[in-house]
Every structure is written in C-alpha cells, then in structure tokens.
UniProtKB/TrEMBL annotation:
It comes from the Bacteria. GO terms for molecular function: metal ion binding; metalloaminopeptidase activity. Pfam families: Creatinase_N, Creatinase_N_2, Peptidase_M24, Peptidase_M24_C. This is Xaa-Pro aminopeptidase. Gene3D superfamilies: Creatinase/methionine aminopeptidase superfamily (3.90.230.10), Creatinase/prolidase N-terminal domain (3.40.350.10).
Length: 606
C-alpha cells in the first residue's frame, strides 16, 4: 500500500472545495480534453487525487464516501495503489459509476463534472442515474481539482514533426478530400476532431506530447469543403512545420476553439461529433449558439484503421527488427535467468537496449517504446497492467514464470508483443494453463470468417479452451494498433464489446491470458493483420482471415502437446519455421543457434 497521507489530505481539500461551490460530489475521470487513453502529466488528476496510475478509471467523491472504478485489468493494481479507507474499489463493469450513483446519491444532491473531460455518452448515462434518485448532474465552469492541485505540471509543448508520404502512403490533401466526401455522405457541414491520433493521421503529423504516443494534442474543425482549421499551440511548430501545415489548414491557437465552435452554431451548421470520444463541452458550445449536432463515428477512425499497402509494408519491416530484438533478449534471458541475478528492471532495460541496438543495425531508428514495459516475475505477472518500480522489483526465480509485454514505436510501424517464459522447469499446472492460452491464441490467429464479422464473435474463440476447464481472463482478447501512432487504436477490437466489423488492412492484437493471483501470469500476444477475402476449397463464400505479423518464438517448454490437436501443432511448427529465415540476418551466430533450438518442431519434444 502506498502512503495514503497525501491522498487523504487531497480528498479532504476537494470536499471542502465542493462544499464552497455548493456541490454534493464530483466525478474525476481518467481523461483529458481529447479523451486520450494515455495522459500528459498535467491531466493526471485521477492519479494525483487517488494514487491510481492505470490507464482507465474514474473516481466519484461524495461528502461522506468515495469510490474508484477500474476494469478487470486493474483489480489487483488498485488494491496496491489506492487506500480502501479513502476510496472503495469498485469493478467498472460489474458496478458502473451510473449504478453506484443510483445507490449512493440522494435526492437534492448536486454532482459536479468537468464538461471538457467527459463525453456526451458518459454524461447522458450519469444524468439518467442522478435523475432516477432526484439528484442533479452539474457542469462546472472550472475544475475544482485544478484549484487545489497547486503544483500541477504545465501542459505539454512537444515538437511536431511531419510524417512523410513515403511512410504514410497517402498525402494529407488526399486524406482530407476523402474525409470531406464522407461528410457530404452524412449531410454534415463539418466535423470536430479532438482525438490526437485522428489529427495526426489526417494531417500527416506526429508529435511528442504524450509519453510513448507520437501525437500532438490539438483540435481540428473539418468543413465539408474548403480548408480545415487546426487549433494547436504554436510553440510546438517550427517554421518548416508551420509552413507545411498552413498549406493544408488555417492554423489557430487552442484558445480560439470556443469562438470557432460558437461560429459554427451561429452559421446554423450541422456538425458531426463522435459522442463516445468527444468532450460534451464541444457539443454544448455549438448547440448553445444555434447549431445542430449529429452523433456519428469519428470520420477518421475507419480510414485510419484500414492500413494501406505502404503502412502494411512498414509494419512488416518494423516487426522484423522488433522480432530480432526479442530473440536477442530471450536468448540473453535464457543464458542468465537461471543464475538468479536477473530482476524485472534489469530485464526491461536490457530489452529496450536490444531494441535500440537492433533498429540501428537495421539502418532504422527506435523512436520510443510504445508503452512502459510490463516486466512481471512470479506473482507480479498476475497483475495485468503491472508497472515495475524499485519498490516492487522482483528477481526471476527458478520454478517461476516471467511475463514480458512490450512494444516499440518505429517510424514505419508500431509493435506490441507479450511472451511468457519458464524460468527453470515449469510444473504441470503452468504447462496446462499456458497450453490452453495457446490454443485460444491459435484459434483466433487461424480463424476464417465472412465479411461483417465483429470482434465479439471471435472473442469466444480465445476463451473456449479456458472455459472448458472453468477458467477465464478479465480483459479483451485484442485491440487495434496504429501505424506509428497509438498502441491502442479503435474502432475494431476482439472483445465482448467488439461491435465493429473487421476489414482488410486492420491490425489487431491477439492476446488471451490466464492469471493466478499471487502466483504467476500467462499471456501470449502477437499482432495480426486482417487479410482480404479469399476462397476456401469446396466453400461457397470467400472468407477473410488473419496474417500473423509478430515474429518471436513461443516457449516450447511450457507447451503440453497432449492438449494440442494435430492442426494446432502444425500451426506452431509453421509459425516457428518462419522465424530463422526472416530474422537471421539481424542475429549473431550464437543467437541464430539459440533460435534454431527454440523453434524445433513440437514433435521433437520429449
């Protein structure tokens, strides 16, 4: 448990501030004005108030009680980070904030929220919950957390760079024209873009405002015809970048956004807004001035998710150097882990170094990691989004499992991979659970499916081998991946809530897992590319499928071949057979020898 004294004081000061404002409570989401998943330090209000450092969560503070809501990825983490005497720990799915408010708010309560940090969809749910008990949801003009956070960091001003057409595969002018054609189809006069990766993709720019995410925090108004307007802090733009962007859009400071939204309203414009990903303050500013807001998907989300041939080629190249770095790391780990001298921090640092070295040897550049490496030994591997620190650092011990989930940002592609490694000899339970996770992974990777198939349909493929043993995992099976953009990208996913059909060119993760609390965790993750429809011999319809992009061996020592079908064994052997031919040129002789041994056919297993 972390020291709760600072958070006790902060909670008390927030309650005093709410009382002065005539509010009975306040909602603190993990969000910024752009609804980013990963936040700049200036927007980490939830962490500052509660101590919770995960990438998804919400707190609700009432006069005499408070709660932090997290999903299944963070149920263990929240226990270690947030004092339960201050904030109850609530499962976000089992008891969502709207349901908790119904049970805990009272008639006459005024529950405040910051309209720049919550979406229209969220506000509608919470308004209904408050109304059900006679309470009121109230938008505040100034966030009370900001008033008491006296040492709040300044907003980021990372430098913006241009993403070349040689890597993007399409000019920004072409993208803007395509998006404007979509607006015409939707009979919208304009769309407001607030998500940083949507803006980065549209204007072929990259930024440095958020750790591990090459995006710039900005806004854009995209009209059905004519020049867009880009609202971005001018300190982020060099003269060269400003000149290039000025040819595409009118450039304005973010402080002018409110006036521009009101201008859309005064013009009686019909404006498309994504209600699940845009601050409700945007819609309110337009409608208050006389405009009309229509709910719809962010027009950028699907074009961005459908990777073009250039982006796909870039992802292939990125995965070759990333796979070679992973092989070098695993060979190093195999040689040293048994000695008992390797710990989580050492391993994570060594993996980052292998990535940098391998990219340089390939004539490329490692721009950044794509997220903080999850380096979990033994029981720490059971914490789904574990973040190693000096306080939690563990040695890799014989007879245990080590889980490493990591990724990289290369200019030609983004990677994300998880491997679970046996340290010493694994026991029968470890091998059983690992093999069931592997069976689920293979079921997804080898699936063939018709057009219109969504992630919720394939999610059960990954879970069935675990369900058959009375087991499951409490996170999605897969998420979308950007092209030198966010490591978590919508709109498609493989999950119980994945309702967007898969289309050729989409890149997703395939990452089922199993976690034994207090003991170890297992996850196997590759990135997979949706392939175009193709005929199946004897079939009546063409079917889409997946191509596995990630290139890295799966630990054979953890595989119980008795649980695999002949087709599953063939899949593993075929996958492993790809690795040495594709990665060997980036490996030293001893690393090639290690890889040849690590990828022997499963039939060779004793």
């Amino acid at each position: 448990m972390t020291d709760s004294d600072p958070h006790r004081d902060r909670l008390a000061r927030l309650r005093a501030e709410l009382a002065r404002e005539g509010l009975s409570g306040f909602i603190v989401p993990h969000a910024d004005e752009h609804q980013s998943e990963y936040l700049p330090a200036s927007a980490e209000r939830l962490a500052w108030l509660t101590g919770f450092t995960g990438s998804a969560g919400t707190a609700i503070v009432l006069a005499t009680r408070a709660a932090v809501f997290v999903d299944g990825r963070y149920t263990l983490q929240v226990v270690s980070e947030v004092d339960a005497d201050l904030f109850a720990h609530v499962h976000l799915v089992e008891t969502p904030p709207s349901q908790w408010l119904k049970a805990n708010a009272a008639s006459g309560d005024r529950i405040g929220y910051d309209p720049w940090l919550m979406t229209a969809a969220e506000v509608r749910r919470l308004e209904a919950a408050c109304a059900a008990v006679g309470a009121e949801l109230v938008a505040v003009a100034a966030n009370p957390v900001d008033r008491i956070w006296t040492d709040r960091p300044a907003p980021p001003t990372g430098a913006v760079s241009l993403h070349p057409v040689a890597l993007a595969g399409e000019t920004a002018e072409e993208k803007i024209a395509r998006l404007q054609a979509l607006l015409a189809e939707d009979k919208a006069d304009a769309a407001v873009l607030g998500q940083a990766d949507s803006i980065a993709w549209t204007f072929n720019l990259r930024g440095a405002d958020i750790a591990h995410n090459p995006v710039a925090l900005a806004w854009a108004i995209l009209p059905r015809s004519g020049k867009p307007t880009l609202f971005i802090d001018g300190r982020k733009l060099s003269n060269t970048v400003r000149d290039a962007l000025s040819a595409l859009a009118d450039i304005n400071e973010p402080s002018h956004l409110d006036d521009a939204l009101a201008g859309l309203g005064r013009d009686k414009a019909t404006v498309l807004i994504e209600p699940r990903a845009t601050a409700i303050a945007v819609a309110n500013a337009i409608t208050a001035a006389g405009g009309t807001v229509i709910d719809g998907a962010d027009p950028v989300s699907l074009p961005k998710a459908r990777k073009n041939a250039t982006e796909i080629a870039g992802s292939h190249s990125a995965h070759v150097r990333d796979g070679a770095a992973m092989v070098r790391f695993l060979a190093w780990l195999d040689a040293g882990a048994a000695s008992g001298t390797v710990d989580e921090l050492t391993a994570a640092d060594r993996l980052a170094a292998f990535r940098a070295e391998t990219a340089k040897a390939d004539g490329s550049e490692l721009v950044d990691l794509s997220f903080d490496t999850i380096s979990g030994a033994g029981p720490n591997g059971a914490i789904v989004h574990y973040r190693v620190s000096p306080a939690t650092n563990r040695r890799l011990e014989s007879g245990s499992l080590y889980l490493v989930d990591s990724g990289a940002q290369y200019r030609d592609g983004t990677t994300d991979i998880t491997r679970t490694v046996a340290i010493g000899t694994p026991d029968a339970e470890m091998r059983d659970r690992f093999t069931r996770v592997l069976k689920g992974h293979i079921a997804v990777a080898s699936a063939r499916f018709p057009a219109g198939t969504t992630g919720v349909m394939l999610d059960a493929y990954a879970r069935r081998p675990l369900w058959e043993a009375g087991l499951d995992f409490d996170h999605g099976t897969g998420h979308g991946i950007g092209s030198f953009l966010s490591v978590h990208e919508g709109p498609a996913s493989i999950s119980k809530r994945g309702n967007v059909p898969f289309e050729p060119g989409m890149i997703l993760s395939d990452e089922p897992g199993y976690y034994k609390t207090g003991a170890w965790g297992i996850r196997i993750e590759n990135l997979i590319l949706v392939t175009p429809p193709a005929a199946i011999p004897g079939g009546e319809r063409e079917m889409l499928g997946f191509e596995t992009l990630t290139l890295c061996p799966i630990d054979r020592r953890l595989i119980d071949t008795a649980l695999l079908t002949p087709a599953e064994i063939a899949w593993v052997d075929a996958y492993h057979a790809r690795l040495l031919p594709e990665l060997g040129h980036l490996l030293a002789d001893d690393e090639q020898t290690w890889l040849a041994e690590a990828t022997r056919p499963l039939a060779v297993l004793a």
